[in-house]
Amino acid sequence: MDSYRLSKAWHLAHSVAIDVHALARELPKSDHYNIHEEIRIASARVPLTIEASTKKKSHEKLKHYKIARFAATELHDVLMLAREQQYIEKQVFTDLASRTIEAQQLLTSLIRSA
To answer: In 18-29, which positions are buried (b, 16+ CB within 10 angstroms) versus exposed (e)?
Structure first.
């Protein structure tokens, strides 16, 4: 079951990262918060950290799951900031945020079972 949750979390995070990178091209390049860079970095960190966890020994996996979950939280916060600055539409935010939250929940489940 853990490999399923891990795979599903990675696929969700990866799809969000792809969509966020496309979205970042449309964001203003000179905003006060540098959101176009922050959102790309945060979105890439989640699937990369999940992927790195698969190459670690079992006692290191928990640490990577927690890092990935924190990165997903960071991504959600940057998405909220982009929405509050009216850089992204509500529907785009809702879609990306819901998939990010689902990945967080899967990671939480993995953390609890570790």
So the answer is: eebeebbeebee
pLDDT of residue 48: 93
Chain centroid to CA 93: how far? 13
Q: Is 114 helix (H, G, I), strand (E, B) or coil?
A: coil
DSSP assignment of 18-61: HHHHHHHTTS-SS-TT-HHHHHHHHHHHHHHHHHHHTTS-HHHH
The domains found in the chain, sorted by start residue, are 2-113 (1.20.1440.60)
Contacts of 62 (CB under 8 A, 6+ apart): 111, 114
Taking 50 as the pLDDT cut, the residues of the chain under it are none
Give the per-residue pLDDT at 13: 96
pTM of the model: 0.90
